[in-house]
Amino acid sequence: MNRAVHTLTALATGISLTSVAAAQTLTWEPQTPPDSPGIRAAMGLAHDPVRGKTVLFGGTAAAFYGDTWEWDGSAWTQLAPATSPPAKWGLSMAYDSARNQTLVFGGFSNTVAQWQQTWSFDGTNWTLMATTGPTGRYYCAMAFDSARNKMVLFGGIRSNRFNQTWEWDGTAWTQIATPTSPSARYTPAMAYDSARHVCVMFGGNVGSGALAYNDETWEYDGTTWTQRLVTGPIGRYNHNMVYDSDRGVCVLYGGVNGASDNYLSDTWEWDGTTWTEQAITSAGARAQQGMAYDSTNHFLLLLGGTSPTGYNNETWELHYSGPTGPVCDTIDFNGDGLYPDTADIDDFLSVFSGGSCSTGTCGDLDYNNDTLFPDTADIDSLLSVFSGGACL
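Given the sequence above, the corresponding structure tokens read:
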């Protein structure tokens, strides 16, 4: 048996293997667009990859806002939809890639009944989708699970904090009774990790005093919540987090911590195993900013928020430079719809050794698509991706 087959056998029997990450550079870059939304915080921001636009709605500063804007990668444009949600702040907003629409739930507005509304935006107009579902609330966490085509919502506050999990299927909300759950909280940050098929949630306000600033990391797989017992960012709320689909990491920024609401300016990344603080120049201490990952233009967009000097309308982009790396094939090597599982490893071993594929639909041996195969780089890439890492 050659070295590559020995390596795969080690994985199949549970031996841990590691790889060295490529160098990378992250840079926060301030933007100076010709026009911008007014100063605000607690708005909704979500990227529409079909149209290549990032949508902004609502927020608050001196008043409640009900305006809709779009960022195309270089400029803000205010839209004039025929209908719109009421002016509100503390709303939950995310893009539904199954139905190609931006969804908004809840938020603090002048009429309590409006706190329970669900709205969708198709790029032209807003449509009121539902007035039932979760009890009216604001400051919830929401993210779209693209593997199950469900919008996931957690927490929020009205007169009390909530610890409920709800899902939207495009027509109606359903409360999910999970075996375990995070405690009741508001303003946690949540993003969907599409590589690992889990919603990742961090922090939030869970009480008063020191309890207000939670530092827990939780993941939801569509069935239950699992707390990841890891060391990471200090406890906080009013922060934000998005998923960088190009690099396969959740990126967290800012928030407040401490009895005097100490504003934070740190950048952290979660790769599914470890939190890593990025030693980079910040976009300034702030909280309640809008954030979205622009997968069209390949950067993280940040807008506004509150800071020690008050509200602002600054536009920032977080850019990555460095090796982009190869793009690997699916981990479902044998095409049976079950992954990651040992059957994929067994079939790769078989095909690599000149044998057959159990399903007859196995992928080719150029797993990392570098045109060189079969070679140990394909083996190393399969090992890395199977273990939740990057394509090498």
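Confidence is low (pLDDT under 50) at residues 1-22. Try to locate this feature in the token string yourself.
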